[in-house]
Amino acid sequence: MAFEYPFYFLRHGETEWNRTHRTQGQYDSQLNETGHAQALRAAEMLKGEPIERIVASPLSRARHTAEAVAEHHDVALSFDDRLMECHLGDHQGEPHGPWLAQYWEGRYDPPNGETYREFCERVWSALRRTVALGPNTLIVAHGGLWKAASEYVDMEPNLIPLPNAVPIHVTPEDGRWHQRLL
C-alpha cells in the first residue's frame, strides 16, 4: 500500500535526557522547560494548518507535545503504542555510547530490546496505517521513527536527524516524501 495522503510529522519537544545525551528509548522521560516552550511554539506554527486528526506516541514527551497542538485544533487526539520510540533494552537510561551508532546502522541488537529491523518494520506499519486514516493527519512521535521510515522511502530534503518540535509537512509522491519545514 502506497502513502496516498499528505500528512504532518512532529518530533516531541526536548527532554533533559535529549539535552544530556542519555538513552531514552521507551523510558517515559518528560519534557523539560525548553521542551514545553518548543511544544507551545510548534502548536502556534501548526495553528493555521488544516489538521484533521492527531495520532501520537503515548510516551509523555510525545503526549504532552500533541496535547499542546490539540488545544488549537478541534480534532480527535489518539495514541498508538506502535509509534513509540525503539526499545533499546538494557541500554535505556544509560549515556549514549558507541553501540548507538551501530544500532542505527542495523549492526547491533541491544540486550532485551528490539532489533533495528524489528523497529523499522513496526514503524513502517504504524505510519502506513496512520496516514491511511485520511489527509492532513498529524503524527507526533520520536526522531528514531523518522530515521526508521527513511529505510523505506527517499526523503527530500533529508531532515535526519530531525530536530525537536519542528513540524514538517510531507507530500508523498512516486516513492518519495517531499518534506517542508513549517
Automatic annotation (TrEMBL):
Q: Which domain of life is it from?
A: Bacteria
InterPro entries tied to this protein = His_Pase_superF_clade-1, His_PPase_superfam, PGM_Phosphatase
Taking the record's annotation, the residue ranges forming a coiled coil are: none
SMART domains in the cross-refs: PGAM
Q: Which Pfam families match?
A: His_Phos_1 (PF00300)
Identify this protein by name.
Answer: Histidine phosphatase family protein
